[in-house]
Amino acid sequence: MAIQCVLYRSSIVFETVRGSGAYGDIAIDDVGIITDACVRLTGRNTSAEGRVEVLHYGEWGTVCNDRWGDEDAQVVCRQLGYRYARPVSSQRSFGRGGGHIWMDQVACTGNESRLTDCPHNGWGDHDCAHDEDASVSCYDSTGCDEYRASGRTASGVYTVFFYPDRIGTYCDMDTAEGGWTVIQRRQDGSVPFNRNWEEYKLGFGDKKGEFWLGNEIIHLLTNFKKHQLRIDMEDWQGNQRFALYSTFRVSGEADGYRLHVSGYSGNAGDSMTGSHSNNGYRFTTVDRDNDVWPSHCSQRYGQGGWWFRSCSHSYLNGRYLGNCGSSCSTWQGLMWYNWRGSDYSLKSVSMKIRP
């Protein structure tokens, strides 16, 4: 971020502009002493992530990561001109800071304009060392709904993340007034879904065909804005059904990409929040068992990743079994129990989200 300064009677505000540094706002008092509010990210060759440092009375210092979370990271990144944020694990190294540790026990609500507006112990009051320095990763995204609102009405692959990485996904501009960001699609069995934790985390497949967008991206898209989830499905006779959930959110990796889903409507039946609800359960893959069944749902049933309970009435990442009618291997295929039961594998399915 480059810096532009605007002079007022009793303060100078640094306005953030995309460029080559990483600073936020700064204020000085009436006698010209810098009091607070400048923030920067250090420790990486990018302005979008790094160790958080604040300027207080002319000297830079770090922030302790005690209680550091999503709300605190959001304030820092907003102050730097980014739309979204995530805290970075303390195990990830941006190097240790030096000198002052200015802030500890920061408790932002997420609505503050500047990090220094957030409650904390007081300047320099801490019990931390520099191996506890707080860090963040900032990013920008444009949802398919925003493309639709700007007049982009053709379905296709659009860039939804711009920084630090350019990531695209398929935008469905046709279904139910369009603007849907597709996070999963199955249609022909061309992409195997028996993948491990890391592959489900990062995503895989062909955005023009079959794919899983990636748990980390799904988490980032749904973490700071309320989304709904729509699931469109088709059987081998050409019948189509849908399930709509008014609330859909996925927690971060530290919480096992836990699913938060509620508010069913539609004509496919409720296979996600009904008697075998997926709500509140962590993601399971063939190499990471997070379900509550004594055995291992993913290993036993198709080796796909899903928010299993013990196991599930929905399983849209199972094996693509083709047209085996009602004699498919039970609980193995693309299964939506409340429509076609546990021994029927659907022809196609797509999961999509929209604010």
Mean pLDDT: 85
Q: What is the N-to-C order of secondary-structure elements (H for helix, E for strand)? A: EEEEEEEHEEEHEEEHEEHEEEHEEHE
Uncertain segments are: 1-36
Question: What Rg, in angstroms, do the CA atoms define?
Answer: 23 Å
Shape estimate? elongated
Query: What proportion of the residues form beta strands (DSSP E)?
Result: 25-35%
Kindly report how far apart the N and C termini lie. 29 Å
The number of helices is: 6
Domain MAM: 1-40
Disulfide bonds: 64-128, 77-138, 108-118
Pfam family, one: Fibrinogen_C
Main location: secreted
Structure notes:
The chain is mainly β and 355 residues long. It contains six helices and 21 strands. Strand 1 and strand 2 form a beta hairpin.
Please give a handful of descriptors for the protein shown:
355 residues; mainly beta; 15-stranded mixed beta sheet; two-stranded antiparallel sheet; 6 helices; 11% helix; SRCR; FIB_ANG-like; Fibrinogen_CS; glycoprotein; signal
Task: Explain briefly what this protein structure is.
By secondary structure, this protein is mostly beta strands. 11% of the residues lie in helices and 32% in strands. The protein has helices spanning 70-79, 144-149, 197-202, 215-223, 297-300, 337-340; strands at 2-7, 12-17, 27-28, 34-36, 38-42, 49-56, 59-63, 84-87, 100-103, 135-141, 156-163, 167-172, 180-186, 204-205, 211-212, 227-234, 240-250, 259-266, 314-315, 335-336, 348-354.
